[in-house]
Amino acid sequence: xxxxxxxxxxxxxxxxxxxxxxxxxxxxxxxxxxxxxxxxxxxxxxxxxxxxxxxxxxxxxxxxxxxxxxxxxxxxxxxxxxxxxxxxxxxxxxxxxxxxxxxxxxxxxxxxxxxxxxxxxxxxxxxxxxxxxxxxxxxxxxxxxxxxxxxxxxxxxxxxxxxxxxxxxxxxxxxxxxxxxxxx
Length: 184
Hints:
By secondary structure, the protein is mostly beta strands. 0% of the residues lie in helices and 39% in strands.
């Protein structure tokens, strides 16, 4: 299903906008989603078209030689967890999250940061604010569209509504309603 940015659906909250220029002519055409055939672009890491895909001290080169593309995830959250629990996309890819709350209380979707250690750079890399979805009421859905960060890594995701998850300050672990967003 193609979702124009200006469309609002009954019962669905549209949360985010694509940060930066959109690389997708049809968000439904995501690599890895069976039956999708829309157009998405991918760029070799060495030819990033000016989208800061690598090579600078704070944005390292891409490990697999691919960045960009379009990714759509239908994610359900209930009172015990997310499904799927692991999401994978390329760095600098345009992602749409369709979050469906099938639980009995509100839950949100928050993606954390990872530590980085490049001299002269910030100490962590985070997803853009548009990736976070505010609390969704039971039986409701919300949509967020954003661009994944660079560098690659495993970013924790969680619901941070009171009582849903707990962050462990010692090792950065999460308990409760959590998952992982793998940027490759």
